[in-house]
Amino acid sequence: MRLVILGGGESGVGTAILGKKKGYEVFVSDFGKIKENYKEVLIINGIAWEEEKHTEDLILNADVVMKSPGIPDKSPIVKLLLKKGISVISEIEFAAPFTDATIIGITGSNGKTTTTMLTHHLLKSAGLNVGLGGNIGKSFAWQIADNKYDSYVLELSSFQLDGIVNFKPQIAIITNISPDHLDRYDYKYENYIDSKFRITMNQTEDDYLIYDADDEAMNDWFKTHTTKAKLIPFSLTKTFSEGAYLKNNKMEIKINQEEFTMDTEHIALEGKHNMKNAMAATSVAKLMQIRKATIRESLSNFQGVEHRLEKVLKIQNVQYINDSKATNVNATFFALDSMNTPTVWIVGGVDKGNDYNELMSLVREKVKAIICLGVDNKKIIDVFGNVVDMMIEVDNMSDAVRMAQRLSEKGDAVLLSPACASFDLFENYEDRGKQFKQAVKNL
User: Fold this and answer.
1) Phi, psi at residue 419, to the nearest 5°?
2) CA angle 131-177-305, nearest 5°?
């Protein structure tokens, strides 16, 4: 059997490794450049590849083709394959038959990364042998080739779902649906909605679909379509005999005659949209029969999304932490509160009328030096000037990080938690966080 893979990125190389292990003759073709680290993996594994071209003779003789999600169906090579009747599938479709693990698939326009990370955190904290993959982390196929997990939590984009035939998760989540990527769907919103619902198309009566019952697009879909899966809705406004909802500042979840409640104030994730993400993830945990105490603890200590208290590197025993997502004082309070070593704090940006006095006791207790990274730092200097030993102003990220390295010593932490918006020096908080991580790596 000849397996041709279009795209030599994470999913492509992972599929190549699994294919090789399962006895396929494998060829990887990338129209762009393949990253050096992926080339090395292909060479070590004796897998044939090409870059910056698609050689038709080497592709059109495939028995099956795995296409990376970034390549549209409209691309010339994909059109040729489909015209010849060659099966073009996604990584998850190729990989799933090679595992008998329980699969939890999560899709949606927004919130799917947080929900995926939180679901993985809940299951892992309970001691389950669980992998994380799909649209984030290590390739699903690669993980199946390498290690044996009993269950997988997969973040799935609509592009990945477009390439499935038989794939089905035992538990599916659709977080929400809003118009996105319509250029790939002939500018028809209904095509995009249908694409998301492909996650449930092969589910049976033994499977579950967890969905946002407040979502207009989903409610409309259910008026004209059905799924065999058992439905578990979640909502901020409605209540259910089976599902997840809010009542008197408590999250309540009723599944299979069992009830779980938790005060919303103890859930680490903030904001209404995150409450929904927490409901969806907790519904999975209940279906997987995780103990209530474990769920409560995991929901209260979850921190795992990029730019949110993200541990970057430890250099000379100093921990660098990226909390660029902290664009207000409340978020920074949470960050400083979680520090248990002397901290060099990088703060500043576009002030939203901040009252920094709320942070005073934490700064006195934990912060040894402050680096102001903003165009106007007057307010921060006025509030904390007499509180810390060292206060320095910089106007770019690499200076901030280099300065922090000088001011820190073994056992300290360097925390980027700006308490401000980023638009004075950066495109957005992600850009700010990425620049911080890059600057740390350049030390």
Assistant:
1) 60, 10
2) 40
- Read off the amino acid at residue 317: N
Please write the tens of the pLDDT for every residue from 66-77.
999 888 888 999
Full DSSP string of 343-402 = EEEEE-SB-SS--GGGGHHHHHHHEEEEEEESS--HHHHHHHTTTSSEEEEESSHHHHHH
45 labelled binding-site residue: no
Helix, strand, coil share of the chain (percent; to 5): 40, 25, 40
Per this entry, what is the length of the chain? 443
Q: Given this model, what pLDDT does residue 179 score?
A: 60
Q: Is 114 annotated as a binding residue?
A: yes
Q: Binding site annotation covers 108?
A: yes
Q: For 97-166, what is the HEC assignment?
A: HHCCCEEEEEECCCCHHHHHHHHHHHHHHCCCCEEEEECCCCCHHHHHHHCCCCEEEEECCHHHHHCCCC
Which pTM does this prediction carry? 0.71
Hey, what's the torsion of the CAs at 235, 236, 241, 244, to 10 degrees?
70
Backbone angles phi, psi at 16, to 5 degrees: -60, -45
Each residue's pLDDT tens digit, 267-282: 887 557 778 999 999 9
112 is in an annotated binding site: yes
Do 392 and 297 meet the contact criterion of CB atoms below 8 Å apart?
Answer: no
DSSP 3-state of 412: coil
How many CB atoms are closer than 10 A to CB 82?
Answer: 13
CATH numbers and ranges of domains, the chain: 2-89 (3.40.50.720), 95-301 (3.40.1190.10), 310-441 (3.90.190.20)
pLDDT tens readout for residues 340-352: 899 999 999 987 6
Query: Mean pLDDT throughout 223-244?
Result: 95
340 annotated to bind ligand: no
Contact 383, 357 (CB under 8 A): yes
C-alpha torsion sign, points 194, 197, 202, 205: negative
